[in-house]
Amino acid sequence: MAVLPITVLGAPILREETVRVEVVTDELRQLAADMFETMHVADGVGLAAPQVGRRERLCVVEVEAARHTLFNPEIIAREGRIKWEEGCLSIPQVFGWVDRAERVTVRAMNEHGAPVEITADGLLGVCLQHEIDHLDGKLFIDHLSFLKRRGAMAIWEQEKARYPKLLRVFGPGGTEPEPTTEHHTEQRI
Ligand code: K1U
Ligand code: ZN
Prior knowledge:
Elements: E1 6-7, H1 26-41, E2 46-48, E3 58-63, E4 66-86, E5 94-109, E6 115-121, H2 122-135, H3 146-159, E7 167-168, E8 187-188
Parallel strand pairs: 5-8
Antiparallel strand pairs: 1-7, 2-3, 3-4, 4-5, 5-6
Ligand K1U is lined by residues 43-48, 86-90, 123, 126-127, 130-131, 134.
């Protein structure tokens, strides 16, 4: 298994179209395994293929030790509304409140190529919506109001200096360059 570099805001692939997966090959199963490892090192609960430089419609999600490898995931039902404070492994140090469906049902193909359906709320429900957005070239900042988004971008203007190649590269033990912000804490908008 391998820890992969994570693309950050500004990398074109985060805004590009993704491609449906017709057959789950061993290479794609290995990619999913590498994505789980990368997600763990980065302290995430989800990760989508464009975040590791790939264009397949694939995401991985792990909440409360339940792992999901999802090819071609699509939301087939939504219920209710909820506000959730989100971050993104591709926009480190930036957070914002996003309006989401409270409960979703997602249809996808698993790592064995079999159809699966997941109905989820709470963290898992929000994470599924966040990851499917990634596969559509959408980021959580796109859901923010004009003013909140402007605040988020101001924070990112400082943070992006850490990623001159638009990649988060993890060293031994998951080490990363220190944040550029003076107080070295997360900033919320
Ligand atoms: O796709 C990503 O950038 C990963 C992102 C997904 C996400 C899940 C839920 C809400 C917003 C975004 C993350 O994993 S951010 C980390 C996170 O939300 C979290 C980490 C540990 C415990 C609880 C939440
Ligand atoms: Zn994200």
